[in-house]
Amino acid sequence: MCGCNRFISSSTHNTCIDSIFVYLFKFYYLRLKNYNDPIYGFISIPTPFISTIIQEPVFQRLRRIQQMGLSHYVFNGATHHRFAHALGAMHLMRKTLDILLTKGTPISDSEREAAMIAILLHDLGHGPFSHALEGILTDNVSHEYWSLSLMKMLNEKHSGKLSLAIQMFEGRYERSFFNQLISSQLDMDRLDYLKRDSFYSGVTEGNISTDRIIAMLRVHQDKLVVEEKGLYSIEKFLLARRMMYWSVYLHKTSYVAEEVLKRIILRAKEMLQEGETIRASADLLYFLSTSRSSEPKVEMKHYAAIDDVDVWSMIKAGVTHQDSVFSNLCEMVLSRRLPKIEVSNESFSSEFLDKQKNIAMTDLGLSPQEISYFVFDGKMKNMAYNLEQSPIILIDKNGVTKELLAGSDESNLKMLTKAVTKYYCCYPK
User: Fold this and answer.
1) Do residue 180 and residue 319 come from a single domain?
2) What is the CATH number of the domain that holds 193?
3) Same domain? 226 vs 322
4) Containing domain of residue 284, as a range?
5) CA distance between the termini of the chain
6) Does a structural domain hold residue 25?
7) DSSP secondary structure of 166-215
8) Taking the chain (429 residues) in consecutive chunks of 10 residues, what is each chunk's mean pLDDT?
């Protein structure tokens, strides 16, 4: 015993040791179970198993996938990642379940944990740059497919502990309101990404009151409904979603940047088919190549390893590639020297497109086969509220339900049910 300990009684010494142990336990507990989030403050992780899932490499991979693709080319602050969004959606799910419990909806501990796991992993299958390369890198396969596949992989690893979460995710669980909280027109995913993307992009029109909306939710006959007094909060939510799509998600500059990014991937695939080589990671090359395995586990192993870093590395190396089309496309994205994009309410004439193609072929020395990488057109479409896709239901104090529009006197809200289509044309400046 050291000299100072001679003056401390045995009981006092043990108490000090116990206090130190409790302090260290709390320190590490808080460190492992809480995340400091700029939107909601501290996000606590509710169960040890959810904490285990978060530490899985396939989930940590979401830290390396941009939430908003190349939107930061316009909105400098929009550099947040899918990891933060997943935690935010889980946090909102936890708050919602707590409120539903106080309103008399029975929810077991297993259902509660499963719902939080399902929303936590809902974007697990996003590939590099999120929606920007969806269906391009993996040939028309959606991120929902990959999310489900990776969830099943984790379920096998953890001896079936994710089975209920998977049922909820797929909409197979008998209590359908759980699936509505995960995937509907008023789910935790949309509530978080609108608020989060608005914050990081600096576009305040997208800021919504998630607390108010969640407080208005109820369960009626195992369906998710909104208390009638929450009507205006829902209207603001839908209007904010429309504003964010046309102001941010479909902003013409970030849109053309992502279109060029898609063409980099398409050109890389074409070059590999013709026997040329490119510098890229083995996992990315697997999806760029036509010779892929038919074994699902092999596919998932490679998919779970790719992220934004793989694509950026290929682009940086591609700037000096001998293929002029590939190198020019890579330089455009890397240096943000993007094509000009025109947006119109009407489609562009074939004469206008032919004119731009002829100019580009002359200026850049491109062949007719190569020009489609630099001159292209298309359309962008958005509908803020789809009546055919799980409509939002209001409930009054007498328990009578009605569809959202039936309870609204806002003609602007009815306009949100109409699809808005805009046409674009891109060509070198």
Assistant:
1) no
2) 1.10.3210.10
3) no
4) 252-337
5) 80
6) no
7) HHHHHT-SSSTHHHHHHSSTT-HHHHHHHHHHHHHHT-GGG---HHHHHH
8) 50 61 51 84 95 96 97 97 98 98 97 98 96 91 94 97 98 97 97 97 94 98 96 93 95 97 97 96 94 84 96 98 97 97 96 96 92 96 90 95 82 82 96
